[in-house]
Design goal:
Elements: H1 24-43, H2 48-52, H3 63-82, H4 110-130, E1 137-140, E2 145-148, H5 149-175
Antiparallel strand pairs: 1-2
Helix pairs in contact: 1-3, 1-5, 3-4, 3-5
Length: 180
């Protein structure tokens, strides 16, 4: 990111930062949306081939793999916890939650991955907005335990933060673009 608010490829940064004085829920929501927008920004303007470019073989990690993985994360932590514990995952084998299965994006496309990711993000937003408070609980089927919406939002936020670091390196490897 340059001081002018643009990436080194001159695309504008349209992300909305979190409030400086927001309450807990507003701040969590804004940080999560900021990181979601960061992932989309890291993938902007790239072809399917660029999005499938692997970080370092034999690793299957690519930008498209990260989008698929984070669609699974959204689904596992919002849809499965608060709506349907048995909802099938998007790319995991039937009856399993295997986040690594999303990493092989060798035959995936931007359309496939982003359509799934955007749908899961919208569902997650709907679940969060419908909750009376961050104390709402749901059941995490993989753990066999109840968890709060607060914990889920923090967990998913940390997933995005970790993987956006990967996305930054992947994007730089594709075309040299660096930035926040």
């Amino acid at each position: 990111m340059t001081p002018s608010g643009k990436h080194t490829d001159n695309t504008p940064d349209t992300r909305v930062g979190p409030p400086r004085l927001g309450d807990e829920r507003e701040t969590l929501r804004a940080f999560l949306d900021y990181h979601r927008a960061t992932l989309a920004m890291k993938c902007a303007g790239l072809s399917d081939d660029d999005l499938r470019r692997r970080s370092m073989p034999p690793s299957t990690l690519s930008l498209l793999a990260l989008v698929r993985h984070l669609a699974e994360v959204e689904r596992a932590w919002f849809r499965r916890v608060f709506e349907d514990n048995a909802a099938p995952m998007l790319w995991s084998p039937p009856g399993e939650v295997n986040f690594q299965s999303a990493y092989d994006a060798s035959t995936s496309t931007r359309s496939e991955a982003f359509t799934a990711w955007e749908a899961e993000v919208e569902n997650s937003r709907r679940v969060e907005r419908a909750a009376d408070s961050l104390d709402m609980t749901g059941h995490q089927p993989r753990w066999g335990e109840d968890v709060s919406l607060r914990m889920v939002m923090l967990h998913v936020l940390l997933e995005y933060a970790r993987h956006n670091g990967h996305a930054d390196l992947l994007r730089e490897g594709v075309d040299g673009t660096v930035g926040a």
